[in-house]
Amino acid sequence: MTRAGCSAGRHRAISSVEVIEVGPRDGLQNEKVSVPTDVKVALCRSLVDAGVRRIETTSYVSPKWVPQMSDNVNVMEALKDIPSGVEVSVLTPNLKGLENAKLSGRVDAVSVFGAASESFSQKNINCSIEESISRFSAVAETALGDGLKVRGYVSCIAACPYEGPIDPKNVVKVWKLLKDLGCYEVSLGDTIGVATPNQISKVIEALVAEGADVNELAGHYHDTCGTALTNVLRSLDLGLSKFDSSAAGLGGCPYAAGASGNLATEDLVYLCDGLGIDTGIDFGKVVCASEATLDVIGIGNRSKSAQAWQAKKQT
Ligand code: HMG
Ligand code: MG
């Protein structure tokens, strides 16, 4: 069977996709304009109103490294009453981050974020991959003991901004370590948004060959080269049904120069709606959810499908 024939059959079998909205964290961490706390909070609330059931609201990282997330405590204080059916997650690179996150009282999952590239690990979290796993191990043990879920990220699954192409074997190595720590799900980050579908296949196939369950993997594709949506389609073909996305295509990564935002949530929802795959998210509401944030930043919505919808609404 050709790949095309194989692919066409598989994504139809997936009837629902879990969208993990990462715009308030991954999106806003890299916008040059600092977004006021109340606007961030309103963004999170509007996204939940639009049907988002998993949301990454902020990160507990050093304010010197990522000043845009320095209001994490206030954001979480204001989001205490987010309905219990919504999974709220935050980034915690170390025990200090975890202890601060726990004070909020409304975190369901904490995310540790590793990389398949040594150089990226150093630039992003100031330590080697080995040292990062040792820090994450302490975070995971404490978090799991406290009844929190632990999510893992592997950055640079296809390429690193400092080292170039990354061998899928390195992704498998870090995925295994994160899995052994007790991560319930590992998100696969095309951090600089350069991967094309065949590279995504190689990574997913390498993971599955080593025993990964596709239901415990998520796709986290930045859209620098405009390939994020095709990478989602390929991932659906291979059985993945969880994807990280960012409202309005906000953001990037502060330690990956030139990387643009994640796949826009609007484009993910538009694709899924068209394929008859349920996301539980209302397309029009998610477009409107980011309007106030975009006004503050002074940019338009970066999602093509959102732009088309807005243009149609104005006529
Ligand atoms: P470090 O400087 O090596 O840490 O940074 P340290 O332990 O030596 O501490 C230095 C200072 O930071 C101390 O303060 C600590 O208290 C403080 P000082 O005594 O100088 O005043 N500190 C903290 N403060 C608040 N919260 C904390 C914390 N830890 C230490 N948790 C560290 C190590 C990891 C903290 C730093 O490198 C850092 O914060 N990095 C953040 C990197 C980041 O947020 N990157 C973006 C997110 S990752 C991403 O976007 C990729 C992803 O989307 C997936 C993908 O796209 O591939 C997830
Ligand atoms: Mg990212």
SSE order and pairing:
Blueprint lengths: L2 H9 L6 E4 L1 H5 L9 H13 L4 E6 L12 H7 L8 E5 L3 H9 L5 E7 L2 H8 L3 H17 L3 E7 L3 E2 L3 E2 L2 H14 L3 E6 L6 H13 L7 E5 L6 H10 L4 E4 L19 H11 L7 H7 L1 H7 L6 H11 L1
Parallel strand pairs: 1-2, 1-10, 2-3, 3-4, 4-5, 5-8, 8-9, 9-10
Antiparallel strand pairs: 6-7
Helix pairs in contact: 1-10, 3-4, 3-12, 7-8, 8-9, 9-10
The protein binds 3-hydroxy-3-methylglutaryl-coenzyme A (HMG) and magnesium ion.
Strand content: 15-25%
SSE string: HEHHEHEHEHHEEEHEHEHEHHHH
In helices, the fraction of residues equals 40-55%
Whole-Å distance between the termini? 46 Å
| Secondary structural class | alpha/beta
Catalytic activity: (3S)-3-hydroxy-3-methylglutaryl-CoA = acetoacetate + acetyl-CoA
EC number: 4.1.3.4
Protein name: hydroxymethylglutaryl-CoA lyase
Enzyme class: lyase
Textual characterization of the structure:
It is an enzyme of class 4 (lyase). Belongs to the HMG-CoA lyase family. InterPro entries: Aldolase_TIM (IPR013785), HMGL (IPR043594), PYR_CT (IPR000891). Keywords: Lyase, Metal-binding. The structure is a single chain. With 315 residues, the protein is of the alpha/beta class. The protein has one domain: Aldolase class I (TIM Barrel). The chain is built from 14 helices and ten strands. Helix 1 crosses helix 10 (228-237), helix 3 (37-49) crosses helix 4 (72-78) and helix 9 (197-209) packs parallel to helix 10. The longest helix is centred in the middle third of the chain and has 17 residues, at 129-145. The chain is globular and about 55 Å long. It binds 3-hydroxy-3-methylglutaryl-coenzyme A (HMG) and magnesium ion (MG). Magnesium ion binds next to loops. Residues 26, 189, 191, 220, 222, 253, 262 line the site of magnesium ion.
